[in-house]
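Usage

Read records sequentially. Each one opens with the input sequence:
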Amino acid sequence: MNCEFCGEEVEQGALACPGCGSPLERTASAVEPEVPPPEVAAADVSALADQTVWPGTEAEVTPEHVVLEDRLTGGYKGPEPPSSSGAGEQTAEDPFGLRITEKALPAAMPPGDESRVGQRNIIVMMLIVVAVVAAIAAAVYFGFLQKKGGPSLDTPQGVVQEFCRLAAEGDYTGAQALAVPGEPFVSSIEGVMTPYSHQGKVTLKEFDSKTLKASDSAATVEITKFFVEVKGKDDTTEFDILLHTRPFPLPKQVNLVKQGDQWLISS
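and closes with the structure output:
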């Protein structure tokens, strides 16, 4: 067919001319005829009418019970289905667990018992604290007594240490009581300690000795450490008496004799 405006040849069924664009009228042959719906046969209609169930004439219908298995071939498996049994324990006599036996809860502690437990704990803690404080106080007390008590005068070393302590503090009368009457050693140690006593208050700081020889009636002790502390107006100074050389050094070896039950310095 050709366009009626420009004469261009147009394909069958086209809506517009490809040359000038003019709309084209479709011929009756180009329009597809409508297909009528298929007719329902009278036999089919009567068959449908025979299947109609009128009220009061319906037959008994038995539903089919389908059981699905709780198994999967793969993937996530959901939670287990709830049991149809009761909440009780399943036994031979009660397979569904319908008999529920309630268990009594543990009895709570009465309020009075809780308070008594708290008081008992407090008392125990207080006793522990008192015991610790008492132990510390005893250690301090007995340590103080031991320090203040001084050395034992039953041994030669103890007599020499006490003699040097009394002389360092200026108690030459007490020092003389530990020596044989007329022994010049008292005058010697007095001459050594006098310059320090002019500087301030002198006290024995550290002392040590060792026994060179001893018998039932005589002994020789060597002084190995003799430090004094001099507390002046402005400061406190320590001195090693064994290093003292002027006007003369202090003898390091001290001889003792035993008179009765007492050791005395002889030289």
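Summary fields computed downstream for this record:
- The beta strands are 201-214, 218-231, 236-240, 253-259, 262-265.
- The chain has a mean pLDDT of 76.
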